[in-house]
Amino acid sequence: MTAVRIELTLRQAPPLRVDLRGLLPATLADLTVAQIEQLPCGHGNHSVPLGEWFSVQRHEIDGDQSALRLVGDCSRFDRIGTGLQAGQLTVEGPAGDYVGAGMTGGELLVQGDAGLLAACEMAGGRLQVQGSVGDWAASALPGGMDGMRGGSFIVGGDAGERFGDRMRRGTAVIHGRAGDLLASRMVAGTIAVAGPVGARPGYGMRRGSLVLAGPACTPGPTFVPAIADVPVAWQLLARSLARHGGAFATLAQRRMQRHLGDLSAQGKGELILVEP
């Protein structure tokens, strides 16, 4: 089978932020280079053709999945990969806010940092940010009630505050440190952090699993030590996280302490502290 790979190379940085929602591999696959260059992009209060910012190349490739590659510093371009359903999208550099928001399938790779609200309301697929992400990643969109609802979200660097706020499902992994109020109001799903975390991890969490594999952390006063051991469940969780490597590779061989909370909410979440 033959698919299409579209390459967009940044010509110049825009003076204002640019909205790239709708720029997806499947959307561009049937368009010519001239049609892609004329696609309108929100720039402030105006609409500007995509060709104003990017040079466009189109290649036919073997395979059944179309691909889109953005090359350059895209930190002023927001909503990259929003609503992605299939295909591969790669950003060779940093990305702006809302990267991967609401995506339901496919693969999105950012070879740099990402801005605010990465993976917010993500429901499927795989998003990997090799650098760090800003505040409110894997959370709900402003005004929304549910955060990340499925898929896999991997952060190679650090994460800002309120990571995983209102998260409902899926797996999120942070290889660096996490900011304050990690997993706040979490409803379900799994978040694992390899580095140190900020104040009040798990604040208001109702259910779900928060695995802290970094330096020792003292749970908040609304978390209590669990009485029952869950060795089988822990081994299954540890082995599923081991595929992410780094500090997670040895989780199954390390001792852990399990706390339940947040008792100020439903108190059915678990905070797992992994010993060095």
UniProtKB/TrEMBL annotation:
Signal peptide boundaries: none
Keyword annotations: Oxidoreductase
Listed SUPFAM superfamilies: Alpha subunit of glutamate synthase, C-terminal domain
Protein's UniProt name: Formylmethanofuran dehydrogenase subunit C
Key word Zinc present: no
Any Pfam family hit: GXGXG
Keyword presence, Oxidoreductase: yes
One GO MF term: formylmethanofuran dehydrogenase activity
Enzyme Commission identifier(s): 1.2.7.12
Domain Glutamate synthase alpha subunit C-terminal: 83-209
Broad EC category: oxidoreductase
